[in-house]
Amino acid sequence: MFRFANIEILWLLWTVPAFAIAYFWYTKRKRKQLEEFGDAELMEQLMPNASRVRPTVKFTILMVALTLLIVAAARPQFGQSERTEKRQGIEAVVALDISNSMLAEDVAPNRLDRAKQMLSKLMDNMVDDKVGLVVFAGDAFVQLPITCDYVSAKMFLNSIKPELIKTQGTAIGAALSTSIRCFGEQSDASRAIILITDGENHEDDAVAVAQRAKEQGIRVLVVGIGKPEGSPIPLPGTNNFIKDRQGNVVVSRLNEEMCREIAQAGGGIYVRCDNTNTATKAIQKELDKLGKQEIETQVFTDYNEQFQSFALFALLLLVIDFFIFNRKNKAITRLDIFGESGVKNQE
């Protein structure tokens, strides 16, 4: 595999044709001025050491060297090596509710953004653990397979929005089943599912799925987000709220009873997320209780730097350019390196 680490630097390559255009315009203008000044043959006799070829050769060498230096600065990388690292950690899958009710603003700035903030802090405390991400509403799918790449995890986390799933609802059972499948083959590592939801419009038998997770050695930690008294759901892009078919404003309420049942069936805990860090600390404490076992990370890819070859070749061309003079050198004129006698004969 080949790539450039700093590919944006390649935009500088546009300077090469710009310099070429400027150079040939200057050369043509200079030649025209000489022709206006006097007879070409007479001017050549007055300037016997002047060369038409050498300046062009020097300019070409400089442009090639500049091109190579730009490519070197873009850091071309080639080749890859694969390795598997073993670390002491746990495996955790986050199941995040992204239904429209998560836009309610009974916690600041809203339920979904507050959940993202909480998860970001949890990931900051992970060192050798694996984390995966499942999103759900009326359906569930894997947003990020389980990995040790926290940078990618945060990137995917920030990109989450309700529009990712068109089917509305709260299919917690489907989310838990998808999370269980994320763990893959049996492992000695401690495993946990962090379910974050407001629990509204619960559609399937999530309690039974949580029980199945517990039987497989997976703890289900439930974070309820929102308030039991509820809050209206803003309509994105407007100053209005979502209404039902009768035209009444929909009020979304946190279903704490259902969240507690799922946590109990899954052998975990339930905690409500508000505008404080209480929920984050509680979940972190439970994760710390899990025994850290030796786990294998996903495959890493290392790229070998190739800029050295381009830089050395550019340096060699600059050295060659240094020893080429714009004017003819009497000591090596007889060698006719640049074929200038042939150019003269043709003229």
Written description of the protein model:
The chain has 347 residues and is an alpha/beta fold. It has 2 domains: 123 residues, no CATH class; 210 residues, Rossmann fold. It is 40% helix and 20% strand. Helix 3 runs antiparallel to helix 10, helix 4 packs antiparallel against helix 5 and helix 7 runs parallel beside helix 8. The longest helix has 23 residues. The two termini are 51 Å apart. The relative contact order is 0.17.
List the keywords.
11 helices; 347 residues; three-stranded antiparallel beta sheet; Rossmann fold; 2 domains; elongated; single chain; six-stranded mixed beta sheet; alpha/beta
Strand content: 15-25%
| Helix-strand makeup class | alpha/beta
Q: What assembly state would you assign to the polypeptide chains in this entry? A: single chain
Strand and helix order: EHHHEEEHEEHHEHEEEHEHEEHH
Low-confidence stretches: none
**What's the CATH first level of the largest domain?**
Alpha Beta
Q: Might you state the CATH topology name of the largest domain?
A: Rossmann fold
- Span of the ends, CA to CA: 51 Å
How many strands in all?
A: 13
**What is the CATH architecture annotation of the largest domain?**
3-Layer(aba) Sandwich
Average of per-residue pLDDT values:
84
